[in-house]
């Protein structure tokens, strides 16, 4: 498989040390980890991502989206004085990739880029006048056809890992969820209890983990403490909805009043 800018000498895949790699460090700052990490995505996912305001980070299913990489086919190329604009399609949608020209990127011809070939693109999702595009830092032709299929599978794997947690390794009774979703340091650990809740959405797992580690009395944990622990990037309504769903499923219950919670034994 082609290496280029993606994966170094590791045979493709996640950037070392990112939340999407097995070598991610759980002790690091989550928000900076995610914003600096390269996530494989489809164009449909880029078009589905949202942001609260023009200066806010992009998010997909409540997970921050930092740098992204896609694989697709060049439909057209527009050469301009200061940048090149590529229309990219991958079977799930279409998006523009804009690359600013400098001494290192001296136009598409020098890079071997032309219409109808497949390329890998890396950069950051941007929007201007409600039109989305990738502010491209790297773009290169794909020479190995397997890279296209690898990218599709990798994008699916990352998305499912965020939604469901990383499954236990074969032959292991305990799995380790190294996905550090959202901006909380309360990632799901390698305990039997975390396996029990691995099917839950990310925010609910974060709440469960916090209750596991901080329920020191029968009075329970006040909702304000829960909000401080998992609240970065999550508004009060999302946290309230997550607690309601955990109660409906019988995972948590209220104690002193409607604002104190304990994990069901």
UniProtKB/TrEMBL annotation:
Q: What are the entry keywords?
A: DNA replication, DNA-binding, Nucleus
Supply one GO CC term from the record: chromosome, telomeric region
- Give the matching Gene3D superfamilies: Nucleic acid-binding proteins (2.40.50.140), Winged helix-like DNA-binding domain superfamily/Winged helix DNA-binding domain (1.10.10.10)
Instruction: Note whether Cell cycle occurs among the keywords.
Output: no
Q: Which Pfam families match?
A: RPA_C
Q: What subcellular compartments does it reside in?
A: Nucleus
Matching InterPro entries: NA-bd_OB-fold, RFA2-like, Rfa2/RPA32, RPA_C, WH-like_DNA-bd_sf, WH_DNA-bd_sf
GO biological process: what's one of them? nucleotide-excision repair
* Superkingdom to which the source organism belongs: Eukaryota
Q: Recall the GO molecular function terms of this protein's record.
A: single-stranded DNA binding
- Any idea where the Replication protein A C-terminal domain is? 173-258
Show the PANTHER family listed in the entry.
REPLICATION PROTEIN A-RELATED, REPLICATION PROTEIN A2
Q: Which family does it belong to?
A: Belongs to the replication factor A protein 2 family.
Q: What is the name of the protein in this document?
A: Replication protein A C-terminal domain-containing protein
Q: Which organism is it from?
A: Coprinopsis cinerea (strain Okayama-7 / 130 / ATCC MYA-4618 / FGSC 9003)
């Amino acid at each position: 498989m082609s290496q280029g800018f993606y994966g170094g000498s590791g045979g493709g895949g996640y950037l070392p040390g990112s939340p999407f790699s097995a070598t991610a460090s759980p002790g690091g700052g989550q928000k900076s980890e995610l914003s600096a990490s390269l996530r494989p995505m489809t164009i449909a996912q880029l078009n589905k991502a949202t942001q609260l305001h023009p200066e806010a980070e992009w998010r997909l299913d409540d997970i921050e989206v930092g740098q992204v990489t896609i694989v697709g086919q060049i439909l057209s190329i527009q050469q301009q004085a200061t940048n090149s604009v590529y229309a990219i399609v991958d079977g799930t949608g279409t998006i523009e990739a804009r690359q600013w020209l400098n001494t290192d990127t001296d136009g598409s011809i020098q890079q071997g880029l032309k219409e109808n070939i497949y390329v890998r693109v890396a950069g950051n999702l941007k929007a201007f006048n409600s039109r989305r595009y990738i502010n491209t830092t790297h773009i290169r032709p794909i020479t190995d056809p397997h890279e296209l299929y690898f990218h599709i599978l990798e994008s699916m794997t990352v998305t499912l890992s965020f939604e469901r947690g990383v499954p236990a390794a074969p032959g292991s009774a305990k799995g380790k969820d190294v996905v550090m979703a959202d901006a909380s340091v309360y990632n799901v650990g390698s305990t039997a209890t975390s396996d029990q809740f691995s099917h839950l959405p990310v925010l609910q797992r974060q709440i469960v983990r916090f209750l596991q580690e901080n329920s020191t009395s029968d009075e329970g944990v006040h909702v304000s403490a829960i909000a401080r622990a998992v609240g970065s990037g999550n508004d009060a309504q999302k946290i309230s909805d997550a607690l309601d769903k955990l109660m409906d499923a019988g995972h948590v219950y209220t104690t002193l009043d409607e604002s104190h919670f304990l994990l069901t034994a």
